[in-house]
Amino acid sequence: MRRAVGALLRKDLLVELRTKEAVPAMALFSISTFVVFHFGLDRSSLDGSLAAGVLWVTLLFAAVLGINRLFVAEVEQGGFDGFLLAPVDRTSLLVAKALALLAFLVLVQLIAIPAFAFLLLGPSLWQALPELLAVAALADVGLAVIGTLVSAIAIRTRARDLIVPILLLPLLIPVVLAAAQATAPLLALDGAGPLPGRWLAILAIYDGVFGLLAYAIFDFLLED
Amino acid sequence: MTYGKGLRPLAALTALTLTAAFALVFFFAPLDADQGFVQKIFYVHVPIGIVALVGFMAGGVFAIQHLRTRDPRHDLRSYVAIHIAIVLALGTLVTGSIWAKASWGSWWVWQEPMLVSFLIVFLLYACYTPLRFSIEDKERQARYASVFAIVAGAFVPLNFAAVRMAEAYIHPRTFATTGGGIPGDMFLTFLVALAGIGLLFVTLWKYEMASKNATFKLRALRRTLAGDELAPARRSAAPTL
To answer: What is the number of structural domains in chain B?
Structure first.
């Protein structure tokens, strides 16, 4: 399985490297959304829970773009058929796609979080960078797992682009909630507060439960 | 399949239990000291909320059975359970909103984790029908809907845990472990109301299953009689056997 995952992941990253389809669009979308928030809120600097909310809502919507595109190449160019013909464990597709999505999300955040700090954030980003990275890592795993599952469900439906957001947003509310709550004290104006551990625990539980669940039922989405 | 069997006594029992529940609500249960008459909505609001959540979970369990056995009847069971639970969930939101207006003074209270969690769960399950509707192949529709039902079923408790942690709750902790909880006669009334709504759910579920099965049999008979001239069935979100 490890070899299959490696091959699929390499393929996805190579395709992204050559077409540059998902990550630049997601990053650009995030930056545009920060600008929209600046005008929508009429604030030139944000801090605390407002900053955390704007950051995570933007990252969530940017993730929706990538999740929409995740399986498009497999359907349009016969990737599914090729994969199903290969004598490998089908779950390796889930693992590879989730890892690819995770890589995209990390790349987008490497651009979007500094851009957020530059454009909107009042307090310094440096005051709690390690804690913020921990929150982002846990939230990204949740986004990647649920995103891959929803993308695989939606790709074979007629209203693909509509099904992804309406399924994804309710499912990801706990992730956004926990990530925003955990980030809020880190971005406080008067120095970073302590990282609330219980939100990290919620994120970890969410990642674990849905990771196992996706692992168990992903096979059923690939049977034709 | 004989879902109609035993439906009549079950319906009678449901009517009896619900009547008894309402009689207890209005003539037996004491008026709440703080909220007065408005508190009586509790005997409708909480049972339909609980039954709706149990219905969602039951839909998930049927979906697991469907994926394990590939029997489309399990998919139908899951579909009908989720369908009725969505209606009950809508009822929970409406009664909860009325109660919130009466006792907290506003129709919607964001600080209230139960209300918010319920809204999120409702929004998620509201996608169930559109998802089914947008998949044409019946076998794939059933499979994907089952995957959705399992994920959503697991999401329900996690979501409640996450949202509850987020808010300092003002919801009455009715069955609190410390400090009294609710008096015995109120609790008895609540239990009867819960049993009544639970029976109502089972009755509606059996009734809908019987009706769907009758429709399928009728369609099969028509097809035998009319041959291929019969117009194809409308595209629908409901499973067919």
So the answer is: 1
Rounded Cα distance, A98 and A102, in Å: 6
**What tokens does B210 get?**
């019987």
Interchain pair A174, B135: CB under 8 A: no
Q: How far apart are CA B209 and CA B77, in angstroms?
A: 7
The A-side interface with B (CB below 8 A) comprises 149, 153, 156-159, 162-163, 166-167, 169-171, 173-174, 177-178, 181, 198-199, 202, 205-206, 209-210, 213-214, 217, 220-221, 223-224
B140 in A contact zone (CB under 8 Å): yes
Read off the pLDDT of residues A177-186 as tens digits, 9 standing for 90 and up: 889 988 988 8
Q: How far apart are CA B151 and CA B171, in angstroms?
A: 27
Per CB-CB distance under 8 Å, the chain B contacts of A164 are none
B238 located within any domain = no
Nearest in space to B144 (alpha carbons), one of A96, A152, A85: A152
Among B165, B132, B173, B166, residue whose Cα is nearest residue B149: B132
Chain B residues with beta carbon closer than 8 angstroms to that of A200: none
ipTM higher than threshold 0.95 = no
Containing structural domain, residue B108: 49-172
Q: How far apart are CA B93 and CA B115, in angstroms?
A: 7
Domain regions of chain A by residue span: 2-222
The C-alpha atoms of residue A216 and residue B187 are separated, in whole angstroms, by 40
pLDDT tens per residue, range B157-185: 888 877 777 665 455 555 544 444 677 78
Asked if residue A174 lies in contact with residue B116, where contact means CB atoms within 8 angstroms, the answer is no
